[in-house]
Design brief:
The structure is a homotetramer. The first copy, chain A, has helices spanning about 20-25, 25-45, 50-60, 65-75, 80-90, 105-140, 160-180, 210-220, 230-260, 285-305, 320-345, 350-355, 365-375, 375-390, 390-400, 415-420, and strands spanning about 145-150, 155-160, 265, 345-350. By secondary structure, chain A is mainly alpha-helical. In chain A, helix 6 (about 105-140) runs antiparallel to helix 7 (about 160-180) and helix 9 (about 230-260) packs antiparallel against helix 10.
């Protein structure tokens, strides 16, 4: 390795390191996708027999030096230009002219990144489905497990742990649906998106149907137009991935709160150790999921900013997309993987939930008491409890209303809401759609 | 006015000032929406005759002092608490207990912001539809108007102005579809989302069907669950609005480039004046649209960050949503309004487009020449032109290929792509859906 | 009021509503600052006696219709153009030519926003100083109040509340120093930053010293060059304000954790009420401070993005700055005001701190035990405690080391660190510098 | 390599690939910095002779498997925990207890990232100094080269290319000064920042002076307090780096505009080629610099958001910092390297500047004419020119004022401003300060 060699191997990305999404988005995977995009292009254009096979044979990432390509990419500002040179050299003189015919760099790199996404999304969906399944079980099992409802950090009124988990699942299914509904199009337009050079040197460009043929060859969607500067696919993909990170972040944030030492209602199945304290069992997965949820919105902000792409192909906004898009795939994939582990092994402590309900001495049902007895009378009972050094529950009971103070009997429609939420189907099996042009 | 009074009247928001969306999102409109949310709640709960009418009568924004509410909102951290006090006082002692029964502040404010959105989106959609219509006409009229295709700021190959405009419209329709597909749900859950207090002081909470009744009363969608901490509706709304800003930003960025003094292919119908230079006609609308597109992604980043909402109602992430959400409605509305004006009055100068095509002396068709004669031969002709002080077009013609150098005969499939794009229907009339629960 | 009138009066900004910073940044304050910028310009240019006074007299915000200016600003894309028309009309025919001589809109608006900042920063600094003072007292008072140190949400080792508060103050002083070190320059350059028209119609422009004269007239700093597209002042101001929001956010985040019902070590002096639950005392100030800290980074991101300002004056990036810059002033000012209240009235419960220290049965000192007895022996004692159903502290004591298990005797150098931190002077009185050109 | 191995080698980062900053920030460099932090810690704590040397010998990145560490880091949420295990194993049983004594993971990783920054910043500063030097030469050489001043994309009034370049340099020096003024502190606090375990098992922690000793051992600054949750150093570093990216982005944005085919006043020394068009010479460096400037603000937004770090060490906000911080170092380093190349080889075409000045037929001096003859008379001459089909310059000359229409004689104080700007010293040699505690 030369001194200039400086690969990242995930040392600062523990949330994604080793995940399937990480492997599917590495430089080598991107390179293979670019080669697949080139080979498919040769495949759909007229060519003598043997040429297509030669290109396919040569288009194997293992035959190229990724680092060398990266270093030489700077000259042209993207890695396609040097890759085309290398691939032409690899296929030999006869086949060379059939490589990259009519295409522009952006055709290949956009298509490649959509291929990378198409290969990564099913991995993420699998983990989201696993998580949704586990959460459905937890929600059903704890449909009636009473727990303090907390608002603005304070005990508010009782709820159930089942309702909380049903909410996690519902949000996760929202995320899942958004991922599954994505359309990942191939890119094909040529130098300025007119398809001119795909038609050869003649006056007419290629039939627009060529775009569909290219998409089908690659298992991607067919766009209505070349989208060099119409960046809907990138914005939608990024947004859906950031939504995944955020949705899992809600779950993780709740686990962090509920596993606080003083609260102790939840614990991660196997906590992370500490380099200093033998007793520590840190909610590490939750912390990493939250970390991803903090980063994702600003990554998607870059992509939404790149909608403003001037001319037929822009100078900078396109280049700014590549890393944030890949990082979003990784963060979402890493978080989904962590969430699957977390949900499958989450430890629930109903006894602590019950104990914590009594921490306020009955104030957690003050709303019910106020509904039954009126707000002035309730305030009066609160004052009496303070004056007499008894709990609010005791004061209410002493005033003849012991039936009002059991938190377990003031969970409202929590159970019915859990049932309602669990009727929402997880729709396993759906995946990014390959659809005909509308 | 007290010295503490400090209203903003749009002085720093010229892109939105005076737009329909601005009026629909002002503090008074938000206040009216909160009052509508309160009145609807009284309306769906059991109440003696006369009470509902009394609340409706009182629930008029004009009867309240917005600034006073704003100042007193600080105490509770949101404007609902003081509003409920005021509304109860306004309806009189008998009706007061029927105001805000069972609800929590977030029920009212979330519902109100969705109402504000529901009232603003049709205004935005109208302007987007007007813009799409105008662009369709421009694209059709200039289907075959040849123009330099520009990539990384440089002339690349010819394209048509029609294809560029068809692309603007296509991106705009993507934005429009995202807005029109939004579901804007009512919020109803009570203190911790269990619906407990809507059922009175009894053990059982209200039937979850109450949420649907509330939504129908307000013309909003019915959510599956209370969404105090399941912020899909806010994330989706914000994302769609940021997408609108970005999509219009592409159009505006192109207008800015093409109306540059040296390029002069486009001009805004009536340019903005200058405080210094009598001759200036600035592309002001485009500048303001671009400014909105620069801000929108970071506003939506806040909303996506607020998906991580801990507990049953969060301490901070919810409060952080209000202003960015409103600002996105305004930016999208302002930009749509500006784009409607811009597209209706855009001045197109095909002669300048034609003149600019010759700026490179034929290099703009170098790709075609290379396809026909090979890259080495093309490089040779480029060198010859340099050496002889003639243009590339002259060199290619002199070499016997005058047919290859007319830019107007190398627009590829631009025309066919315009036709294809214009077949995409604008679907006027669609608006945010009110849908039954799945 | 016309139907198009739509002022915001702070209804969705409870964190800033009523604060001094809000008043100093309202549309009227911005208008006054623009008028001050115009009057100062007339003041430094040669003019017949009486003219300057006439302009000063006319340049009162109360004489103008803010909303009308806002609506008419759209045409030119900024509010200066119409303001100049109005001001010229107001001063009369003779004085009119002396208004805005040589200037461009951006000279006036940039200068005005710096004036607004210069008037707002001392208000923020006052609240930060008040907060720092209160925190110094709390830190000193609780120098030795033992509290659980928490990492990744779990009890780690003991610390003191004094050290935590000393840290809050240290971070706040960092923020304060950044604000106080800001240089807020006047802007003067004319149409393209060459000062050409300030010199009249002659060939030579004005002496660059004119910029300094203008700055001195307004009490602002003198920049080295006109900064129409050299946006250091805006980036620095925005960054410092976002830092203030973040620094106060740390304090607020800790208050939110420590005032959780189960933890109960802190409470806001007077909690916010609830529209549903009589007993609730919400940490409202902390929630609003955290909300501001969630928004500020994305506002400053827009400002940092606007560093990329093309040409002599940009089309969009400048326009995108105005609202985020003002909002940052408000958020920082609102948060500083809330923090001053919060720190002055914070309720501290040392007994709860002490109680919580024992929640883990001594595991909070496992690090000390491991240091003394080795990690294997410590793990063994942990296992023994589990097996015997006793606490870790009991197991360690039973093993002959009762001296190791008192959390109050394992606070390390917390006290010394508090002393060290409190020696850092608050430097009251410093304020944004008016400095000569380097 | 296992199938899970997925290194990034810069394929999607052409702006940074191969730069010195990239090499200084790779995973191996981070690993070495962590090892240096561990070795320095052993070095300042009491230890038998030989131990320190043994740890230093073992603490070589080349002896560790980066990928394996990355994969195993997930368990504890950061790479330090596994590294400590490995390092203890490597140094042997006797030395093992002297490794990582008293420290927490965050001590090591925070210190390591500051070390990485300390090693990278001088590389960036060198390139900024080279760029500043080249720009000073260009500015001086073109002090009086007249060029169209452009505002909102339109010709405004004349300026000089020298003034534009002097502005680039001034902004760059602002960026440089911010980098050079950074203080990069060591981190040392132990489990909860009390220094408890550095004092051994006794009651008293280590003297706070230990922090200074550690800092000096590493050549870093001494912080006043452990800064596990007082994130000023990270916020400041990130902000300064984003400022660098933005400052260079201004330069690049101007190059992109001025090298547009129709404008042609500048060209990059050697343009990037195209995979499709033989004639293309793309301003690739500028595009990559602009791409970095689009990403940097959103990376720093994450860091500013992480100021809100709860407890003694936070669960997520810290973990969210690592990648954005490193990426900012790379983007700034890559952009500085590109800018150094760009500025050294920029091609300037004064003839085109002169030609473009006449594009408006004299309207570019309309401000001067209006100052001399009044705005009404100027408008009249503009109308006359239109009516007669002559240029504005011709109309003004015909009206007896030929002296007013030469753009070269209306550059105002551009020359004086260049001189003033170039007197600002570049202060080469300054670098991040190592300072005593205040």
């Amino acid at each position: 390795l030369s001194s200039a060699e400086s690969p990242d191997e995930g040392l600062l990305s523990p949330g994604a390191a080793g995940s399937a999404a990480e492997a599917a988005t590495g430089d080598r995977a991107v390179l293979q996708a670019m080669l697949d995009a080139e080979a498919a292009l040769t495949g759909i254009m007229p060519a003598p027999s043997g040429i297509v096979a030669a290109v396919r044979t040569a288009a194997q990432a293992g035959r190229f030096d990724v680092r060398d390509l990266a270093l030489r990419a700077r000259r042209g500002g993207n890695p396609v230009i040097v890759l085309v040179e290398e691939l032409r050299a690899a296929v030999g003189e006869e086949a060379a002219p059939y490589v990259h015919r009519g295409a522009t760099s952006q055709d290949i790199l956009d298509t490649a990144l959509m291929l990378v996404a198409a290969r990564t999304l099913p991995l993420i969906l699998t983990d989201l489905d696993r998580t949704a399944g586990a959460l459905a079980e937890v929600a059903a099992a704890h449909r009636d497990t009473v727990q303090a409802g907390r608002t603005l950090t304070q005990h508010a009124v009782p709820t159930t742990f089942g309702l909380k988990v049903a909410g996690w699942r519902d949000l996760l299914l929202d995320a899942r649906d958004r991922l599954a509904a994505l359309r990942l199009p191939a890119q094909l337009g040529g130098a300025a998106g007119t398809l001119a050079a795909f038609g050869g040197a003649g006056e007419a460009g290629a039939d627009p149907g060529l775009i569909g043929a290219y998409a089908r060859e690659l298992g991607l969607s067919e766009p209505l137009l070349p989208w060099h500067t119409l960046r809907t696919p990138v914005a939608d993909l990024g947004t859906a991935l950031a939504f995944v990170c955020g949705a899992l972040g809600k779950l993780a944030a709740d686990v962090l709160v509920l596993s606080r030492t003083e609260i102790g209602e939840l614990a991660e199945g196997s906590g992370g150790g500490s380099s200093a304290m033998p007793h520590k069992a840190n909610p590490v997965r939750s912390a990493l999921i939250v970390a991803a949820a903090r980063r994702a919105p600003n990554l998607v902000a870059v992509l939404l900013g790149s909608l403003v792409a001037e001319d037929e192909r822009p100078a900078g906004s396109w280049h700014a997309e590549w890393q944030p898009l890949r990082e979003l795939l990784r963060l979402a994939g890493g978080s989904a993987s962590l969430a699957a582990e977390l949900s499958a092994s989450l430890r629930v402590f109903p006894d602590r939930m019950r104990e914590n309900l009594s921490v306020t001495g009955g104030l957690i049902v003050s709303e019910r008491v106020a509904t039954a007895l009126g707000r002035p009378r309730t305030k009066e009972l609160m004052a009496r409890a303070d004056a007499q050094g008894i709990t609010f529950a005791e004061a209410v009971s002493a005033a003849g209303h012991p039936d009002l103070v059991d938190p377990a009997r003031y969970t409202g429609s929590a159970g019915a809401l859990v049932d309602r939420a669990l009727r929402r189907a997880a729709r396993p099996g759906a995946s990014p759609r390959t659809e005909p042009t509308p």
